[in-house]
Design a protein that fits this description.
Elements (H helix, E strand, L loop, with lengths): L2 H9 L7 H29 L4
């Protein structure tokens, strides 16, 4: 199991959680991470970390 699923289950103590809801949450988590990575690349160029 991945971190968002475990966190989601722990947040509600296993109740009020469905697989479809956790799948949507995991998709959102993935999208946020990809956007964050894409936003970091220009900053790395400006800092001279990537040539």
């Amino acid at each position: 199991m991945d971190a968002p699923v475990i966190t989601g289950q722990a947040a509600v103590q296993g109740s009020m959680v469905s697989k479809s809801g956790l799948a949507k949450s995991s998709l959102g988590y993935m999208v946020i991470n990809i956007i964050g990575l894409l936003l970091c690349v220009p900053v790395w160029y400006m800092m001279g970390l990537v040539h």
